[in-house]
Amino acid sequence: MNKTLSGILCAIILLCACNDSREFEVSGQITSADDETLLLEAMTLNGIKAIDSVKLDSEGDFHFEVGSPAGPEFYRLRIKEQIINISIDSIEQIKVTADLPTMGLDYTITGSHNCERLKELATKQIHLEESIKSILRNKNITTEEQSRIVNEKIVQYKNELKKDYILEDPAAPYAYFALFQSIGGQLLFNPIDNREDIRYFGAVATAWEAHYPHCLRTENLRNIALQGMRNTKPRAPLSFEGLKETQISTTGIIDINLSDRFGQIRNLSDIKGKVILLDFTAYSLSESGDRIMQMRELYKKYQKSGFEIYQVSIDPNEHYWKTACEQLPWVCVYDPNGEESGYIRSYQIYRIPSYFLINKNGDLVARDEQVENLEESIKQLLGK
Questions:
Q1: Closest CA to 71 of 225, 219, 224, 222
Q2: pLDDT (0 to 100) of residue 250
Q3: How far is it, in rounded angstroms, from Cα 119 to Cα 125?
Q4: What residues contact residue 289 under an 8 Å CB cut-off, 6+ apart?
Q5: What count of other Cβ atoms lies within 10 Å of the Cβ of residue 192?
Q6: pLDDT tens-digit readout, 346-372
Q7: What was the pLDDT predicted at 371?
């Protein structure tokens, strides 16, 4: 290929690249909105971000052009509390027409199948919330009956989302959007500790991994699904296999040898003839304050009857731990290895905080998920 032809081809390629602005367009008309400001906002993983705005005249015409996202993203048109959700995957040209008073419910949108499905979801959600409000306002039925009817409606709607939106095409942006539907500010799908719901997060995460492997939302979905799976993974019973004999006390528990805030080694096996709450925690956790208050009440009630707490902290900051445990009356020890603690592995702990109950004979009898009522379990072990 001669230099002249090569140069022409390069110029053409550069020209094409420059002309490919990779923008999506949202245009249309919002009537009854003279002098109102129409906002185009991005619904990012970090919150709502303003993209562009226009002040509407009596005709209500608008036109936005925005650089296309690297993967599927969600935007919204908003005037005050009236909202229209939009899904953008590439360089769509979206057309929207609406009348301001009913803009969020009664609008027309073309140019994107995903946007049409988002409209269906928004309409169904609004109708469901109105139905729930009507039920809760009905004084002719009992509170229990109201709760039953509301729950039935939510379950029915949730099953509809699963069948018609999530499983229909898990890779679709509307499937992702359906996962995060909420009623009354509460997410319908619980990705934290509901195994059934986590399955649907996993299905969408897997599909997005295949179609949009480098998208931030894909990474977010994957992390949510994996955390949920870890949270709900059945825990195997404790096994002493592979441990050295010196690690196992004569009573059958895995002994712990750590320092308290005075630098004194405190052995778990040194606590004899008592019911022990063996607790693994971090005082820096947001729920730690309430949890410590509950433990104080239990300790105050049952310490004289033979109840003890042996609390292992894995806080990243030792000084913070010393300050936090200064006024606590039970045994507080610190593991400088933090989350890499060998004791966490030995006791097969998958989340912090976690606790175990040990009887007067020094036998480990239950871990937290097996305990329905902690105080009642302590009383039974104490013989009360």
A1: 219
A2: 40
A3: 10
A4: none
A5: 12
A6: 888 878 889 999 999 888 888 888 888
A7: 85
Count CB neighbours of 266 within 10 A. Answer: 17
User: pLDDT tens digits, residue range 114-165?
Assistant: 999 999 999 999 999 999 999 999 989 898 899 899 999 999 999 999 999 9
Quote the pLDDT of residue 252: 53
Distance linking the first and last C-alpha atoms of the chain: 95
**What letter represents residue 383's amino acid?**
G
Domains of the chain: 18-110 (2.60.40), 126-232 (no CATH), 245-382 (3.40.30.10)
Q: Pairing relation of β-strands 307-313 and 331-334?
A: parallel
Task: Kindly give the parts of the chain with pLDDT less than 70.
Answer: 1-21, 231, 233-252
Distance CA(156)–CA(124), nearest Å, equals 12
Longest dimension (CA), the chain: 97
SS3 per residue for the chain: CCHHHHHHHHHHHHHHHHHCCCEEEEEEEEECCCCCEEEEEEEECCEEEEEEEEECCCCCEEEEEEECCCCCEEEEEEECCEEEEEEECCCCEEEEEEEHHHCCCCEEEECCHHHHHHHHHHHHHHHHHHHHHHHHHCCCCCHHHHHHHHHHHHHHHHHHHHHHHHCCCCCCHHHHHHHCCEECCEECCCCCCCHHHHHHHHHHHHHHHHHCCCCHHHHHHHHHHHHHHHHHCCCCCCCCCCCCHHHECCCCCECCEEECCCCCEEEHHHCCCCEEEEEEECCCCCCHHHHHHHHHHHHHHHHHHCEEEEEEECCCCHHHHHHHHCCCCCEEEECCCHHHCHHHHHCCCCCCCEEEEECCCCCEEEEHHHCCCHHHHHHHHHCC
| DSSP strand pairing (82-88 vs 73-79) | antiparallel
Which residues, listed in sequence order, are joined to residue 333 by a DSSP beta bridge? 312
- The token duo for 3 is 């230099």
43 pairs with which residues across the strands? Answer: 48
336 — phi, psi (to 5°)?
-65, -10
The two structure tokens encoding residue 158: 């949730």
Q: Hey, CA dihedral for 251, 256, 261, 264, is it positive or negative?
A: positive
Between CA 244 and CA 341 the distance in angstroms is 16
The two tokens of residue 297 are 């009440």
| Residue 353: cis peptide before it, omega within 30 degrees of 0 | yes
Angle at 170 between CA 169 and CA 175, to 5 degrees: 90
Residue 4 in tokens:
């002249």
